[in-house]
Amino acid sequence: MKILFLFVGAFILFQALDLKEVRVAYKDAAHDSAKVDGFYNSMLEVTKDDDVSLVAYKGAAIALKARQAQTIKEKKEGFMEGVSFIEFAIEKAPSAIEPRFVRLGIQENTPKLLKYKEDIEEDKTMILNQFETIDSPNLKGHIKAYILQSKVFTTEEKTVISKL
Question: Which range marks the domain in which residue 158 is found?
């Protein structure tokens, strides 16, 4: 009976949070501060027991929301809470590409003051090495679009990805 309840609960959560929609909401929130609250609110129910991609996006939502905090202390605490979700997702599934993609996006756009840039090269290399093996056309499209506008990827890397 407990297994059935857990399965139904997981199914309902999965139905409520479609990864395609979460990816779009993340991209929109990263580019438009007016959309951060909607993205943040959509991720509130995600826990560390959920899919690692959702956990990483929840971390990103918390980190983006922290930008809007009133004090520097609140901004830093919120950012660190968000980072903890992203890092948890990566520790739980080190070879999963989507949490690495989320972390790369956060790290690239984080001020140096926060000292959260140490894994950029590792995540970039992993994404480039695994890009062709991504099964989801939707995820592949999001990552490709990110790479083509990112400052951490070289012109040569962008050229290779643009042809795939």
Answer: 2-162
**Distance (Å, whole) CA 108 – CA 42:** 24
Please list, in sequence order, all residues whose beta carbon lies within 8 angstroms of the beta carbon of residue 3, skipping any fewer than 6 positions away.
none
Number of domains in the chain: 1
Q: How far is Cα 77 from Cα 21, in angstroms, rounded to an integer?
A: 27
Cβ neighbours of residue 159 under 8 Å, at least 6 residues apart? none
Which among 136, 158, 128, 103 is positioned nearest to 18, based on CA atoms?
Answer: 136
Residue 114 dihedral angles phi and psi, to the nearest 5°: -80, -10
Tens digit of each residue's pLDDT (9 = 90 or more) over 118-150:
999 999 999 999 999 999 999 999 999 999 999
pLDDT in tens, 22-62: 999 999 999 999 999 999 999 999 999 999 999 999 999 99
Dihedral (Cα; 25, 28, 34, 37), 10-degree rounding: 20
Confirm if 115 and 93 have CB atoms less than 8 A apart: no
